[in-house]
Amino acid sequence: MGSAPVRALRATPVRTISAPKHDAILEAARRVFLREGYSASMDLVAAEAGVSKQTVYNHFGSKEELFRAIVDDLSSELL
Predict the structure, then answer these.
(1) Do 44 and 6 contact (CB within 8 A), yes or no?
(2) pTM of the predicted protein model
(3) Cα separation of 54 and 42, whole Å?
(4) Which of 40, 55, 63, 70 is geometrically suited to a Cys-Cys bond with 51, CB 3.0 to 4.6 A?
């Protein structure tokens, strides 16, 4: 009886998050949400930040998470 071949497991590549892009997205989103309100599109946020919409989602996951990050950032500035 032969043994089954062993398959090598591939590690999922780790995606690094660019701090300058992260900050640019936060600043752009802050401006866009202040100007347009929460109904502003993520396309508009991405364009304002100079990144792709996918990059915005890679950094924040959702519009809600991005908005929450802005609120957290503003809250920490006040404390």
Answers:
(1) no
(2) 0.76
(3) 9
(4) 55
